[in-house]
What we know:
Layout: H1 3-13, E1 24-29, E2 39-42, E3 49-55, H2 61-64, E4 69-72, H3 76-86, E5 102-103, E6 112-117, E7 128-131, E8 142-147
Parallel strand pairs: 1-3, 2-8
Antiparallel strand pairs: 3-6, 4-5, 4-7, 7-8
The chain binds zinc ion (ZN).
Amino acid sequence: xxxxxxxxxxxxxxxxxxxxxxCDFKVEVNDEMRFKISQxxxxxxxxxxxxxxxxxxxxxxxxxxxxWVLAKSADVQAIATEGMMVxxxxxxxxxxxxxxxxATDIVGAGESASTSFSPxxxxxxxxxxxxxxxxxxxxxxxGDFILx
Length: 148
Ligand code: ZN
């Protein structure tokens, strides 16, 4: 195989796009208040969408904890503001909050957590955001969640 052929095969295998839809996401976070990705594109044909958050930083959950929360973009600020009040024991999310479509636990250094949800929670024509509900993080630690 020449290099050109390898490049072409790779391109075909990954659909040729920079962002390709998928079902299983690994999201890495560290001691910064941001996700490394600003957009996640999931495939509408997935039975379940799984998101695993992995904290590769050095700081503990009570100092620089992170989670991955999915909600309608319009609900993010209220969810995060109310979640701040209920503390780390509740992963900074009001228990039973129906606006939270999916969420992992808060993780600190060296920890990981997962959540799985049906793509059916996504309504056509709505805008969705993934974010971290740790106090003060949601304003910068967020991105667009798109179902294709
Ligand atoms: Zn965070």
